[in-house]
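In this supplementary section we document a worked example of the pipeline. Step one takes a protein sequence of length 386 as its only input; no multiple sequence alignment statistics are reported here. Step two produces a three-dimensional model, which step three serialises into structure tokens for compact storage. The input and output of this example are shown verbatim.
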Amino acid sequence: MRFFPILTAVVVVAVLYFLVFERDRLLEFAGAPAEETVIPAETDAPEDVTVAEEDDGGTRVAVVAMRSEAQTVDGAVILRGRTEAERKVDVRAETSGQIISEPRRKGSFVEAGEVLCRLDPGTREAALTEAESRRTQAEAALREAEINNTAASRLSEDGFASETRVAGAEAAVEAARAAVQSADAAIASARNELENLEIVAPFGGVLESDTAELGELLQPGSLCATVYQLDPIRLVGFVPEAMVDRVELGALAGARLTSGREIVGRVTFISRSADENTRTFRVDIEVPNSDLSIRDGQTAEIVIQSDGEVAHLLPQSALTLNDEGTLGVRVVADARAAFQPVSVLRDTIDGIWVSGLNETAEVIVVGQEFVTEGVPLTVTYREDQQ
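The serialised model returned by step three reads:
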């Protein structure tokens, strides 16, 4: 009874074998033409990129390119920075005392040497008088000791004074001299204390804070005032290490503040050491500020003049990366795709300026992401499309 199911299974396997593995022979035996198998090309290329047949049976990739001529462009270095006071100092007390002068208000302009805070002298003038009196007494004692020493020396030569007396007289002279020097030091200290009672501005500038208030007690190191020198003012920027060699001392520089004001100065300092965190180099630019209208800490967009460079103006979309991650563009070379690395000089609203290409270049601007090195191309030039 099992013979028929087994026979049916064998027939089904045979039919499937001929349908799958011997389909062409089966169709030929039946008199039908064999079907051609067409394998469609897989591509993610955009509509602008098509595949064209080559004469030798190969394929060419259709791309759009532009003919670019190198131009000399201003090689200005552009960076962001800030304004910074030329000098800034916290003026502090060097001695203790109570403030007896009226305070100066912040924003006031002060000249170099102008008194900012005056302290109560207390007993310092009396200490100076006492030190001067001690010096007078020490000078008199020195003269007396010198006279005694001279007399002892002469008596010793005639045999009327012992060597002990002579040595004692010389010791008295030295002690008197030491007393005079001690008195001189006391006088200098007292005078210095009196001079420190007046805390003066080290340079001309603007007070950033009120001076110490009347009646306030200052100790050595206490703050009297903070003075900023804003003329000239300094622009501070940080240049990437790839561009630092293009900046020179004395180079003309300009800046635009956030308020829209434009200012001009010259480079006065280029750091020789890179910042450990950003790997950038500090650059200082000195700018006149006689009216003190430029403030410390304003944000500025800085442009530093440098030698012009030969570059190409390309669409930013033309940039691509090769397999090693190098930035560059795809160009047409002998009707085939080639990769050329480039360096970006400047990004503008009209495009991006790059260097590293030949004087003339045919840069692929559509389809560069779908070709690799050496791929045959069918090129349509952008100017021919217009």
